[in-house]
């Protein structure tokens, strides 16, 4: 398979995977926006592998898929200008930004940190786009006209903060485990101890991310998020995040302990 065919095949597979993952919603906000299971990560990986220009093209294609799945939202536009703004900011620019996943490739030596930084940049651009269209187009529709900017900042942060955490952590581990910059994706060559140490970190990282999403869900309202809502949560609501967090850390400690014993043996 030549490089062009491989690139097209990988991009098509990652586009499909990203779209499917976008349907797996952990949190679904009432006026648009959701927290998904790593739905941004496939395109970000493609952007890292094949550079920004190709990444932006794939991101643009992903934005069209997202727009097609959310065509109903366009009917809420109060004017032709509003519809154009929704198309451009809520979809085209917001999701094309996933193509920024590789902007730090070659600039940051550590591959995990490099792709994680690119993922963070993509999420920030997407958040800005949703916030801008929220306080302009959606003001008076699903967002109050007064204090529209503040409301939009809070509302969009309610899903973009956990979405960003999930995406950045996933990008970091993808970059640490796989050779994303090579012609073929393979596991990063590691010594046995290094590989086991990396494996030991995964359960704890997943535990922290999942617990964070659980806790963030507790403070979400129809208006965005309200940190004071934590004081009103039942003690039993904390069981799930605490159990997930403790389990993840415990598994990591066990694996780390086993690795240390093997190294001493």
Please state how the strands of the largest beta sheet are arranged side by side. Answer: 1-2
Structural class: mainly alpha
Share of β-strand residues: under 5%
Number of helices: 7
What does this structure look like?
The chain has 7 helices and 4 strands, in the order H-E-E-H-H-H-H-H-E-E-H. The protein is mostly helical and 265 residues long. A hairpin with a 2-residue loop joins strand 3 and strand 4. Helix 5 (148-177) runs antiparallel to helix 6 and helix 6 runs antiparallel to helix 7. The longest helix is centred in the middle third of the chain and has 30 residues, at 148-177. It is flat. The mean pLDDT is 86.
Concise description?
66% of the residues lie in helices and 4% in strands. With 265 residues, it is mainly α.
Topology:
Layout: H1 3-22, E1 25-28, E2 34-36, H2 41-69, H3 80-96, H4 111-136, H5 148-177, H6 192-218, E3 220-221, E4 224-225, H7 239-264
Antiparallel strand pairs: 1-2, 3-4
Helix pairs in contact: 1-2, 2-3, 2-4, 3-4, 4-5, 5-6, 6-7
Question: What attributes does this structure have?
Answer:
mainly alpha; 66% helix; single chain; 265 residues; 7 helices
């Amino acid at each position: 398979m030549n490089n062009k065919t491989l690139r097209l095949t990988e991009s098509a597979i990652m586009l499909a995977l990203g779209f499917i993952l976008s349907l797996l919603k952990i949190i679904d906000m009432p006026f648009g926006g959701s927290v998904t299971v790593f739905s941004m990560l496939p395109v970000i990986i493609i952007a890292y592998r094949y550079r920004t220009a190709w990444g932006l093209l794939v991101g643009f294609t992903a934005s069209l898929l997202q727009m097609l799945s959310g065509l109903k939202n366009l009917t809420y536009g109060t004017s032709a200008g509003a519809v154009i703004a929704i198309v451009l900011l809520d979809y085209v620019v917001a999701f094309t930004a996933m193509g920024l996943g590789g902007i730090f490739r070659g600039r940051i030596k550590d591959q995990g940190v490099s792709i994680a930084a690119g993922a963070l940049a993509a999420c920030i651009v997407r958040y800005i786009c949703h916030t801008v269209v929220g306080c302009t187009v959606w003001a008076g529709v699903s967002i109050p006209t007064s204090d529209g900017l503040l409301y939009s900042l809070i509302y969009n942060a309610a899903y973009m903060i956990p979405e960003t955490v999930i995406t950045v952590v996933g990008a970091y581990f993808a970059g640490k485990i796989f050779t994303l910059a090579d012609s073929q994706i393979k596991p990063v060559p590691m010594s046995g101890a290094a590989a086991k140490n990396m494996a030991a970190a995964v359960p704890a990282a997943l535990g922290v991310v999942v617990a964070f999403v659980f806790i963030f869900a507790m403070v979400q309202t129809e208006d965005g998020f309200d940190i004071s809502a934590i004081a009103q949560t039942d003690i039993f609501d904390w069981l799930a995040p605490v159990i997930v967090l403790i389990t993840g850390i415990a598994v990591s400690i066990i694996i780390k302990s086993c690795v240390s014993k093997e190294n001493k043996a």
